[in-house]
UniProtKB/TrEMBL annotation, chain A:
Family in the record: Belongs to the AzlC family.
Compartments, as annotated in UniProt: Cell membrane
Key words of the record: Cell membrane, Membrane, Transmembrane, Transmembrane helix, Transport
Protein name in UniProt: AzlC protein
BP terms from Gene Ontology: L-valine transmembrane transport
Ranges annotated as spanning the membrane: 50-74, 123-150, 156-173, 180-196, 202-218
Cellular compartments per GO CC: plasma membrane
TrEMBL record, chain B:
Transmembrane segments: 6-26, 38-57, 63-96
Name of the protein in question: Branched-chain amino acid transport protein (AzlD)
Protein keywords: Membrane, Transmembrane, Transmembrane helix
Higher taxonomy: Bacteria, Pseudomonadati, Pseudomonadota, Alphaproteobacteria, Rhodobacterales
Length: 226, 98
């Protein structure tokens, strides 16, 4: 467990900066620092939290914010599934704890270290996960505490900070040219829908569905060619 | 803090937990199904749609700042650098009256 806790430290420092920025933004849109900490400890998913907070601040709808945030977390189905061998031998209680403290960073590090030495397993995942969730929660609370005493940052482009964060997330999710057309169509459909006066939350759903339809058509065409 | 804030936190935590448990219990079967690609594609499409929705109806300066942020993201693949330089571009363009 100690091995994982120490190895993850450089990545935890990076997450702390992101966490601080998220906490600051969340406080500026009305979330008290303790609630930011509660969210970080109970959700433990940075991109999902930032999307939900932005959507709630923009649209004021709980369900839209939760669905948008949850959709970002769907990748965890595959990530957690890939841990099945790592979690073998743990009790259900420890398994639940392990999957809760699993985030992008410690999952990737555990898989990478395990590829190098097979003895890396659940203890490494848990040790690195405990450090990540602690650092993430503490940094978001610190950011929110600072954000709560700062003046309204909207005039300095606070709203654009979310847009820039989403752009960075998109870059992280980019896997190759095959995504280009679905992404362009999704963006175009969203802009067109919102420009017609439809609320943003619905525009996002329309964009995502148009993108999925494009992916489905591309996959069908690929299969037909093969 | 209103009940709506509590609802966002509680429901998001519940959804995150349910997704993780789904991965633990049925992840293997879901990954092997013919619809598994949806899990891979949806997060990127949602994020791109979020960017587009925040830019819809905004003035050209905001689109320009977004273009600069895209350039930084492509070049650095770093969240904080993209946020910092994107906001600097947004503020700078505003200051220049673009």
């Amino acid at each position: 467990m100690k091995h994982g806790a120490l190895t993850i430290l450089p990545l935890a420092l990076g997450a702390a900066v992101y966490g601080f920025a998220f906490g600051l933004l969340a406080a500026q849109v009305g979330f008290p620092s303790w609630s930011v900490g509660l969210m970080s400890a109970s959700v433990h998913a940075g991109s999902s939290q930032i999307v939900a907070v932005e959507q709630f601040a923009t649209t004021g709808t709980v369900l839209g914010a939760v669905l948008a945030g949850a959709a970002l977390n769907l990748r965890y189905v595959g990530m957690i599934a890939s841990l099945s061998e790592v979690l073998v031998g743990l009790s259900w209680r420890w398994k639940i704890l392990a999957i809760h403290v699993t985030g992008d960073e410690n999952w990737a590090l555990t898989m990478a270290e395990r590829a190098k030495s097979p003895e890396v397993g659940a203890a490494f995942l848990l040790g690195s996960g405990f450090v990540m969730i602690s650092v993430w929660t503490a940094s978001t609370v610190a950011g929110a505490a600072i954000g709560a005493v700062l003046p309204d940052l909207e005039r300095f482009g606070l709203g654009f900070a979310f847009t820039a964060a989403f752009i960075a997330m998109a870059r992280g999710l980019w896997r190759g040219r095959s995504q280009a057309l679905p992404w362009v169509l999704a963006a175009g459909a969203t802009v067109a829908t919102v420009s017609l006066g439809v609320p943003q939350a619905y525009g996002i759903v329309v964009g995502a569905l148009v993108g999925l339809a494009a992916c489905a058509l591309m996959r069908r065409k690929k299969v037909a060619v093969a | 803090m209103s009940g709506q804030y509590w609802a966002v936190i509680g429901l998001l935590a519940l959804a995150a937990f349910a997704i993780r448990v789904t991965g633990l219990i049925a992840g293997g079967r879901i990954r092997a199904s013919r619809h598994a690609w949806v899990l891979d594609e949806l997060p990127g499409l949602i994020v791109v749609s979020l960017v587009a929705s925040s830019l819809a109806g905004q003035p050209p300066a905001t689109w320009l700042a977004a273009g600069i942020a895209v350039g930084v993201a492509i070049g650095t693949n770093h969240v904080i650098a993209t946020m910092a330089l994107g906001m600097a571009a947004f503020a700078g363009l505003g200051w220049l009256g673009v």
